[in-house]
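2024-03-11 09:14:02 DEBUG pipeline.ingest accepted 1 chain
2024-03-11 09:14:02 DEBUG pipeline.ingest length=220
2024-03-11 09:14:03 DEBUG pipeline.predict start
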Amino acid sequence: MKKNMNKIMIIDDHPIIHDGLKTLLASEEHLEICSTASSADDALSKLSDGCPDLAIVDLSLGDMDGTYLIPQLKKIQPELKVLVYTMSEEKLFAERTASAGADGYVMKTSPPTTLKEAIRTVLDGGLYFTPETIERIMKKREGQIGTPGTLMDNLSNRELDIFNLIGQGLDSVSISGKLSISKNTVDTHRINIKNKLGLPNGKAVERLAYEVIQKGKVPK
Protein backbone atom coordinates (compact mmCIF):
# COMPACT_ATOMS: atom_id res chain seq x y z
CA MET A 1 0.00 0.00 0.00
CA LYS A 2 1.28 3.48 -0.84
CA LYS A 3 2.19 5.88 1.93
CA ASN A 4 -0.53 8.31 3.07
CA MET A 5 -3.19 6.31 1.23
CA ASN A 6 -6.78 7.28 2.08
CA LYS A 7 -9.10 4.28 2.15
CA ILE A 8 -12.69 4.54 0.94
CA MET A 9 -15.78 2.39 1.48
CA ILE A 10 -18.62 2.64 -1.05
CA ILE A 11 -22.11 2.01 0.31
CA ASP A 12 -24.66 1.81 -2.49
CA ASP A 13 -27.19 -0.82 -3.52
CA HIS A 14 -26.36 -0.46 -7.23
CA PRO A 15 -23.30 -2.47 -8.35
CA ILE A 16 -22.87 -0.14 -11.33
CA ILE A 17 -22.07 2.67 -8.88
CA HIS A 18 -19.40 0.51 -7.25
CA ASP A 19 -17.81 -0.15 -10.64
CA GLY A 20 -18.15 3.45 -11.78
CA LEU A 21 -16.49 4.88 -8.68
CA LYS A 22 -13.69 2.33 -8.86
CA THR A 23 -12.99 3.44 -12.42
CA LEU A 24 -13.31 7.13 -11.58
CA LEU A 25 -10.93 6.99 -8.62
CA ALA A 26 -8.43 4.51 -10.07
CA SER A 27 -6.16 7.33 -11.24
CA GLU A 28 -6.15 9.07 -7.85
CA GLU A 29 -2.86 7.87 -6.37
CA HIS A 30 -3.69 8.69 -2.76
CA LEU A 31 -7.14 7.06 -2.80
CA GLU A 32 -7.92 3.37 -2.48
CA ILE A 33 -11.35 1.71 -2.40
CA CYS A 34 -10.91 -0.82 0.39
CA SER A 35 -14.45 -2.26 0.43
CA THR A 36 -17.94 -1.98 -0.99
CA ALA A 37 -21.33 -2.67 0.58
CA SER A 38 -24.77 -3.04 -0.98
CA SER A 39 -26.82 -2.60 2.18
CA ALA A 40 -26.66 -0.97 5.60
CA ASP A 41 -26.18 -4.29 7.37
CA ASP A 42 -23.39 -5.20 4.97
CA ALA A 43 -21.70 -1.84 5.57
CA LEU A 44 -21.91 -2.10 9.35
CA SER A 45 -20.45 -5.61 9.32
CA LYS A 46 -17.57 -4.61 7.03
CA LEU A 47 -16.72 -1.28 8.63
CA SER A 48 -14.40 -2.55 11.33
CA ASP A 49 -12.60 -4.87 8.87
CA GLY A 50 -11.77 -2.28 6.23
CA CYS A 51 -11.07 0.65 8.58
CA PRO A 52 -11.89 3.22 5.86
CA ASP A 53 -11.11 6.91 6.24
CA LEU A 54 -14.15 7.87 4.19
CA ALA A 55 -17.52 6.27 3.47
CA ILE A 56 -19.39 7.31 0.32
CA VAL A 57 -23.04 6.66 1.16
CA ASP A 58 -26.23 6.61 -0.90
CA LEU A 59 -29.41 7.71 0.88
CA SER A 60 -31.64 5.15 -0.83
CA LEU A 61 -30.58 1.74 0.46
CA GLY A 62 -32.79 -1.31 0.39
CA ASP A 63 -32.73 -2.09 4.09
CA MET A 64 -32.20 1.32 5.68
CA ASP A 65 -32.28 4.97 4.71
CA GLY A 66 -28.80 6.48 4.60
CA THR A 67 -29.82 9.21 7.04
CA TYR A 68 -30.34 6.54 9.69
CA LEU A 69 -27.17 4.66 8.74
CA ILE A 70 -24.77 7.58 9.09
CA PRO A 71 -24.99 7.88 12.91
CA GLN A 72 -24.46 4.13 13.23
CA LEU A 73 -21.32 4.32 11.11
CA LYS A 74 -20.03 7.19 13.23
CA LYS A 75 -20.80 5.30 16.44
CA ILE A 76 -18.58 2.41 15.33
CA GLN A 77 -15.85 4.66 13.95
CA PRO A 78 -16.17 8.25 15.27
CA GLU A 79 -13.34 9.61 13.10
CA LEU A 80 -14.91 8.29 9.89
CA LYS A 81 -15.67 10.91 7.25
CA VAL A 82 -19.00 10.47 5.46
CA LEU A 83 -19.82 11.84 2.01
CA VAL A 84 -23.41 11.43 0.80
CA TYR A 85 -23.62 10.57 -2.92
CA THR A 86 -27.22 10.32 -4.03
CA MET A 87 -29.98 11.22 -6.47
CA SER A 88 -32.03 12.76 -3.64
CA GLU A 89 -32.48 16.53 -3.89
CA GLU A 90 -29.80 18.37 -1.91
CA LYS A 91 -32.11 21.19 -0.88
CA LEU A 92 -34.28 18.66 0.94
CA PHE A 93 -31.78 16.31 2.50
CA ALA A 94 -28.39 18.02 2.90
CA GLU A 95 -29.02 19.69 6.23
CA ARG A 96 -30.63 16.58 7.70
CA THR A 97 -27.70 14.41 6.64
CA ALA A 98 -25.33 16.97 8.16
CA SER A 99 -27.26 16.74 11.43
CA ALA A 100 -26.88 12.96 11.22
CA GLY A 101 -23.09 13.34 10.91
CA ALA A 102 -22.37 13.65 7.18
CA ASP A 103 -19.44 15.81 6.14
CA GLY A 104 -20.53 16.46 2.58
CA TYR A 105 -23.27 15.99 0.00
CA VAL A 106 -22.97 15.44 -3.76
CA MET A 107 -25.78 14.61 -6.14
CA LYS A 108 -25.15 11.86 -8.69
CA THR A 109 -26.09 14.29 -11.46
CA SER A 110 -22.96 16.34 -10.64
CA PRO A 111 -19.86 16.07 -12.87
CA PRO A 112 -17.08 13.67 -11.77
CA THR A 113 -14.82 16.61 -10.93
CA THR A 114 -17.31 17.73 -8.28
CA LEU A 115 -17.21 14.34 -6.59
CA LYS A 116 -13.40 14.33 -6.60
CA GLU A 117 -13.33 17.83 -5.14
CA ALA A 118 -15.79 16.80 -2.44
CA ILE A 119 -13.70 13.75 -1.53
CA ARG A 120 -10.56 15.86 -1.17
CA THR A 121 -12.36 18.53 0.86
CA VAL A 122 -13.91 16.07 3.28
CA LEU A 123 -10.70 14.07 3.74
CA ASP A 124 -8.91 17.34 4.49
CA GLY A 125 -11.34 17.98 7.33
CA GLY A 126 -13.69 20.38 5.55
CA LEU A 127 -17.41 20.37 4.84
CA TYR A 128 -18.76 20.02 1.29
CA PHE A 129 -22.27 21.46 1.08
CA THR A 130 -23.79 24.49 -0.59
CA PRO A 131 -22.82 27.77 1.13
CA GLU A 132 -26.40 28.16 2.40
CA THR A 133 -26.36 24.72 3.99
CA ILE A 134 -22.94 25.30 5.58
CA GLU A 135 -24.17 28.59 7.03
CA ARG A 136 -27.10 26.88 8.69
CA ILE A 137 -24.94 23.97 9.91
CA MET A 138 -22.41 26.31 11.53
CA LYS A 139 -25.08 28.43 13.17
CA LYS A 140 -26.74 25.36 14.62
CA ARG A 141 -23.41 24.08 15.92
CA GLU A 142 -22.82 27.48 17.54
CA GLY A 143 -26.25 27.38 19.15
CA GLN A 144 -27.71 30.12 17.00
CA ILE A 145 -31.22 30.05 15.60
CA GLY A 146 -29.98 29.92 12.01
CA THR A 147 -31.54 31.09 8.81
CA PRO A 148 -35.20 30.47 7.97
CA GLY A 149 -35.99 27.00 6.69
CA THR A 150 -38.34 25.79 3.99
CA LEU A 151 -41.81 24.30 4.06
CA MET A 152 -40.19 20.87 3.82
CA ASP A 153 -38.70 21.34 7.30
CA ASN A 154 -42.18 20.57 8.66
CA LEU A 155 -41.82 16.95 7.55
CA SER A 156 -40.25 14.20 9.65
CA ASN A 157 -37.38 12.17 8.20
CA ARG A 158 -39.72 9.33 7.26
CA GLU A 159 -42.26 11.70 5.71
CA LEU A 160 -39.48 13.32 3.70
CA ASP A 161 -38.34 9.87 2.53
CA ILE A 162 -41.86 9.16 1.28
CA PHE A 163 -42.24 12.62 -0.27
CA ASN A 164 -38.99 12.00 -2.15
CA LEU A 165 -40.26 8.67 -3.49
CA ILE A 166 -43.60 10.20 -4.47
CA GLY A 167 -41.63 12.75 -6.47
CA GLN A 168 -39.84 9.90 -8.22
CA GLY A 169 -43.22 8.62 -9.39
CA LEU A 170 -43.70 5.70 -6.99
CA ASP A 171 -47.17 4.78 -5.74
CA SER A 172 -48.00 3.64 -2.20
CA VAL A 173 -47.51 -0.05 -2.98
CA SER A 174 -44.08 0.54 -4.49
CA ILE A 175 -43.07 2.81 -1.60
CA SER A 176 -44.17 0.24 0.97
CA GLY A 177 -42.01 -2.39 -0.71
CA LYS A 178 -38.99 -0.11 -0.99
CA LEU A 179 -39.16 1.02 2.65
CA SER A 180 -40.35 -2.34 4.03
CA ILE A 181 -43.41 -0.83 5.67
CA SER A 182 -47.13 -1.52 5.11
CA LYS A 183 -49.17 0.28 2.48
CA ASN A 184 -51.47 1.55 5.25
CA THR A 185 -48.47 3.13 6.97
CA VAL A 186 -47.46 4.80 3.71
CA ASP A 187 -51.00 6.11 3.20
CA THR A 188 -51.04 7.50 6.75
CA HIS A 189 -47.76 9.30 6.10
CA ARG A 190 -49.16 10.68 2.84
CA ILE A 191 -52.11 12.16 4.74
CA ASN A 192 -49.72 13.69 7.29
CA ILE A 193 -47.61 15.15 4.47
CA LYS A 194 -50.72 16.66 2.87
CA ASN A 195 -51.80 18.25 6.16
CA LYS A 196 -48.35 19.53 7.14
CA LEU A 197 -47.82 21.12 3.72
CA GLY A 198 -51.32 22.62 3.70
CA LEU A 199 -52.33 20.88 0.48
CA PRO A 200 -55.96 20.07 -0.47
CA ASN A 201 -55.54 16.47 -1.61
CA GLY A 202 -53.21 13.64 -2.63
CA LYS A 203 -52.94 14.86 -6.22
CA ALA A 204 -51.60 18.18 -4.96
CA VAL A 205 -48.98 16.28 -2.94
CA GLU A 206 -47.93 14.41 -6.08
CA ARG A 207 -47.70 17.63 -8.12
CA LEU A 208 -45.62 19.39 -5.49
CA ALA A 209 -43.38 16.34 -5.02
CA TYR A 210 -42.75 16.26 -8.77
CA GLU A 211 -41.84 19.96 -8.80
CA VAL A 212 -39.48 19.58 -5.86
CA ILE A 213 -37.82 16.28 -6.72
CA GLN A 214 -37.73 16.48 -10.51
CA LYS A 215 -37.21 20.22 -10.94
CA GLY A 216 -35.59 21.25 -7.64
CA LYS A 217 -38.24 23.89 -6.88
CA VAL A 218 -38.43 23.86 -3.08
CA PRO A 219 -41.19 26.11 -1.68
CA LYS A 220 -40.37 28.51 1.14
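2024-03-11 09:14:41 DEBUG pipeline.report The beta strands are 6-11, 31-37, 54-57, 81-86, 104-107.
2024-03-11 09:14:41 DEBUG pipeline.predict end
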